[in-house]
Design brief:
The complex is a heterodimer of chains A (339) and B (259). Chain A has helices at residues 2-8, 10-23, 33-44, 48-55, 67-82, 86-99, 104-117, 120-164, 169-184, 187-197, 207-233, 236-244, 249-279, 291-302, 306-333. Chain A is built from 15 helices and no strands. The radius of gyration of chain B is 19 Å and the shape is globular. Classes of the chains: A mainly alpha (339), B alpha/beta (259). Chain A binds chain B through residues 235, 237-238, 240-249, 251, 255-256, 259-260, 336-339, and chain B through 55, 57, 87-88, 91-92, 94-95, 98-99, 101, 103, 105-110, 118-119, 122-124, 150-154, 164, 167-168, 170-171. The structure holds adenosine-5'-triphosphate and magnesium ion.
Chain lengths: 339, 259
C-alpha cells in the first residue's frame, strides 16, 4: 500500500520539491525549521525518498552548533534504514561521525545497521542463544512436573479404576463422584481453586504443590476411566480361569488381569501424557515458572517472537520423544501376541 | 465324617436360578473316588451351570455340596440366610477341584510353563524352583514339554486345551471338571485331548465331564447322565444307557441330532 501510494504521488512530490528548491536558498543557513516541517510533510505523504532529498539540504557549517545537521542526517539515515538501503544508511550516519566522532546516536545506529545486515538465520541463532538459558530453566520445571504426574497418576488411576468396579457400593460411588468432578470441570479452574480458592478456607499450598495436586487429581481421574475400560475389556474367562485354580480376586487382578491391560492401555495413556506435557503450561497461571511462563517472560521483555518459536520447538521435542518412547513400550508390552 | 466307601463329591438338591429361569433344578449326584461321570444334554439344559456351581463360580440358591463327606462352601449369617463362605475358604476349596473350560482361557501373557506354574506359585506360594518342577511334570504328562517356553497364541487348539489341563493338574486337585473340553476344537484335534483325559482316568482321577462326544462317553464313562431343563432325566452305565435308556424319546432325538 505504502509503496503504491508512494509511486502515484512521486511526480507531485518532485514538482513540490523543485518549488522548495527555489524557495529554500532565501532562508538558507539561518533557519531549517521549514526544511524539517517539509520533510515531515513528505513523510506524512509516505514519500520517504522525497523526505530524504529535502533533508539533504541541511549542510554542516563551521561555527554552527551542528544540531540541525546531526538531526537531519540521523533522520535521513533512519529513512534509508526504513527503505532497506543499509549501505546508504550507515554512510549517512558516518557523515555525522566525521564531524562528531563520539556521537552515541550515530554509533548505536551503525551497530543496529550491522545487526540488520546479518543474515536472518544468524540473528535467529543469536536470539536463541539469548533466550535459551531461561527457557531451559523453565523446561526443566516442565519436565519435573511431567515426571511427577507420570509417576503419580497411573497409581491414582489404578486405585480409582479398581474402586469403580468394586462391588462395594460406597467405594464405587465415591470413585464415580471423583471422576465426575474432575473430568467435568476445566483443569484451569481446578488449579485456580486449589491455589487461589483454598487459602480462603485456610488451606494454603506452595505453587509447586498446588500444581502437582491439581494435575495429579485431574490426570488420575482421566487415567482411572481409561484403566477401568482396559480391565473390563479383558475377557471374563480370564478371571474365571484364575479363580478356578484357586486365586483370590486380588491375586487374579495383579497376576492375570492387569498385566494383560498394559498393551491395550499404552496408546490411550501415551496420548494422555502427551496432553499432559502441554497441559503443564496451565500452571503458569498459578505462579509456576515453567517453559510457557519463561517463554512469555522473554517475549514480553524483548518483544521477540523467537522466544515463542523456541518454546514451541522445545514442546515439540518433548512430545516427539514421548511418542517414540510409548511406541517402543507398546511393542514390548504386547510381545506375547505376535510371537 | 470320613468313611471308606463315601462319595468324593455329593450334591444334594442343587438349585440355581437366574431371575425367573431355573437353570439347575434340584440335582442330586454322588461321585465316588476314581469315578468318571459324563453328562450329556441339549444346549441350555444347565450342564455348565451345574459344573460351575461345584466350583463356586455360581452361587447356588438351594442345596448342599459335600466334599469328602464335609459340607462345604456356604455358611449362614445371623439372620439365618445362607451365603457363600469367606473368599479365602472358597479359594482353598477351588484349588482342590480343577476345572477345564471350553475356550481354554489360558493366560496369554504368560508362557506355557508360566501358565502351569501360576497355581503352585501364586496360590500355593511354592518357590519358583518347586513350582517349575511341578509344572514340567504336568507338561510331560500332557506331552507338551517341548512347548514350555512359547506363548499360548502360537499353540493349536488341542495343545492349548492340554496346557489348560496341565495348569489345573498342577494344583493336585482331587476332582476334575471338564466343560465341553473339545467343543471349540477342529475334529482332528479332539483325539489328542481325549487321549490326555483317558490317561488321567487310568491314573484314577475322579472326573465329571460334560461333552457331546458319544464315542468317548461310551468308552470312558463309568456313568452317563442325560440332563434336560435343569434336571437329570436318565442315567446309567454306558452299556445300560445306550442300550436301554434310548427308549426315552427325548434322549433318542437328542442323540440322533448330534450323532
Ligand atoms: N449368568 C447367567 N445369567 C442368566 N442366565 C444364565 C446365565 N448363565 C446361564 N444362564 C441360562 O441358564 C440356562 C443354562 O445354561 P447353561 O450354560 O448351564 O447350559 P448348558 O447346558 O451348559 O448349555 P450349552 O450346551 O449350550 O453349553 C440357559 O438357559 C442359560 O441361558
Ligand atoms: Mg455349557
Amino acid at each position: 500500500m505504502k509503496l503504491l501510494s508512494g509511486r502515484i504521488s512521486k511526480t507531485a512530490i518532485l514538482l513540490f520539491s523543485c518549488l522548495l528548491l527555489l524557495l529554500v536558498p532565501v532562508s538558507y543557513a539561518k533557519d531549517y525549521d521549514q526544511v524539517f516541517s517539509d520533510a515531515n510533510e513528505a513523510m506524512g505523504n509516505g514519500d520517504l525518498p522525497a523526505a530524504i532529498t529535502i533533508l539533504k539540504k541541511v549542510q554542516f557549517e563551521k561555527g554552527d552548533d551542528g544540531g540541525a545537521f546531526v538531526r537531519s542526517r540521523m533522520q535521513i539515515a533512519r529513512l534509508q534504514f526504513a527503505l532497506k538501503d543499509m549501505p546508504a544508511a550507515s554512510a549517512t550516519a558516518r557523515e555525522v561521525l566525521a564531524v562528531y566522532p563520539d556521537n552515541s546516536e550515530a554509533l548505536n545506529f551503525i551497530a543496529s545497521v550491522k545487526q540488520e545486515q546479518k543474515p536472518r538465520y544468524v540473528v535467529f541463532i543469536e536470539d536463541c542463544l539469548r533466550f535459551l538459558p531461561q527457557l531451559l530453566k523453565g523446561a526443566v520445571m516442565t519436565i519435573a512436573l511431567v515426571v511427577c504426574i507420570i509417576l503419580i497418576s497411573p497409581l491414582g488411576g489404578l486405585l480409582i479404576a479398581l474402586g469403580r468396579i468394586s462391588a462395594f457400593k460406597p467405594v464405587s460411588g465415591l470413585c464415580w463422584f471423583f471422576i465426575w468432578l474432575f473430568r467435568g470441570t476445566p483443569l484451569l479452574l481446578q488449579l485456580f481453586f486449589i491455589y487461589y480458592g483454598l487459602p480462603s478456607l485456610g488451606i494454603t499450598f506452595k505453587p509447586f504443590t498446588a500444581a502437582i495436586l491439581g494435575l495429579g487429581l485431574n490426570y488420575s481421574a482421566y487415567l482411572g476411566e481409561i484403566i477401568r475400560g482396559g480391565i473390563q475389556s479383558i475377557e471374563h474367562g480370564q478371571m474365571e480361569a484364575a479363580k478356578a485354580i484357586g486365586m483370590t480376586y486380588w491375586q487374579a487382578m495383579r497376576r492375570v488381569i492387569i498385566p494383560q491391560t498394559y498393551k491395550r492401555l499404552m496408546p490411550p495413556i501415551g496420548n494422555e501424557f502427551i496432553a499432559l506435557i502441554k497441559d503443564t503450561a496451565l500452571v503458569s497461571t498459578i505462579a509456576m515458572v515453567e517453559l510457557m511462563r519463561s517463554a512469555d517472560q522473554m517475549f514480553n521483555a524483548y518483544f521477540n517472537v523467537t522466544a515463542l518459536i523456541l518454546a514451541a520447538l522445545i514442546y515439540l521435542l518433548f512430545t516427539t520423544i514421548f511418542t517414540f518412547i510409548f511406541e517402543k513400550i507398546e511393542i514390548r508390552a504386547g510381545i506375547y501376541e505376535n510371537r | 465324617m470320613k468313611t471308606a466307601n463315601q462319595p468324593l463329591l455329593s450334591l444334594k438338591g442343587i438349585t440355581k436360578r437366574f431371575g425367573a429361569l431355573t437353570a439347575v433344578n434340584g440335582v442330586d449326584l454322588d461321585v465316588c473316588p476314581g469315578e468318571i461321570v459324563v453328562i450329556i444334554g441339549p444346549s441350555g439344559s444347565g450342564k455348565s451351570t451345574l459344573l460351575r456351581s461345584v466350583n463356586f463360580l455360581e452361587e447356588i440358591d438351594e442345596g448342599t455340596i459335600l466334599f469328602e463327606g464335609d459340607e462345604i462352601g456356604y455358611v449362614r449369617n445371623k439372620q439365618g440366610r445362607r451365603h457363600l463362605d469367606a473368599p479365602a475358604k472358597i479359594c482353598a476349596l477351588r484349588s482342590e477341584i480343577g476345572m477345564v473350560f471350553q475356550h481354554f482361557n489360558l493366560f496369554p501373557h504368560m508362557t506355557v510353563l508360566g501358565n502351569v506354574m501360576e497355581g503352585p506359585l501364586t496360590v500355593q506360594k511354592k518357590s519358583t524352583a518347586a513350582a517349575r518342577e511341578i509344572a514340567l511334570d504336568m507338561l510331560a504328562k500332557v506331552g507338551l514339554s517341548e512347548k514350555r517356553d512359547v506363548f499360548p497364541a502360537t499353540l493349536s487348539g488341542g495343545q492349548k486345551q492340554r496346557v489348560a489341563i496341565a495348569r489345573a493338574l498342577a494344583m493336585r486337585p482331587k476332582l476334575m471338571l471338564f466343560d465341553e473340553p473339545t467343543s471349540a476344537l477342529d475334529p482332528e484335534l479332539i483325539g489328542e485331548v481325549f487321549d490326555t483325559i483317558r490317561s488321567l482316568g487310568r491314573e484314577g482321577m475322579t472326573m465329571i465331564i460334560v461333552t457331546h462326544q458319544m464315542g468317548f462317553a461310551k468308552e470312558m464313562a463309568d456313568r452317563v447322565i442325560f440332563m434336560e431343563n435343569g434336571s437329570f432325566v436318565a442315567q446309567g452305565t454306558p452299556e445300560d444307557f445306550f442300550a436301554n435308556q434310548m427308549e426315552h424319546d427325548r434322549i433318542k432325538s437328542f442323540l440322533n441330532r448330534i450323532l
